[in-house]
Amino acid sequence: MSPNAKPHATALILGDLQNNFLHPDGSYHRAGLGNPAADVLPGKLALLARVARARGILVVATLFTLVPGRGGEPIVAPDLKALRPFLKKGDFAPGSWNHQLVDALGTPDVAIEKVAYSAFHNTRLEWVLRKLGIERLYFTGIVTNVGVSSTARDAHVREFECTLIEDGCAAFREEDHRAAIAGIRSVARVIAIADAIREFEA
Question: Is residue 99 a contact partner of residue 18, using CB atoms and an 8 Å limit?
Answer without folding.
Answer: yes
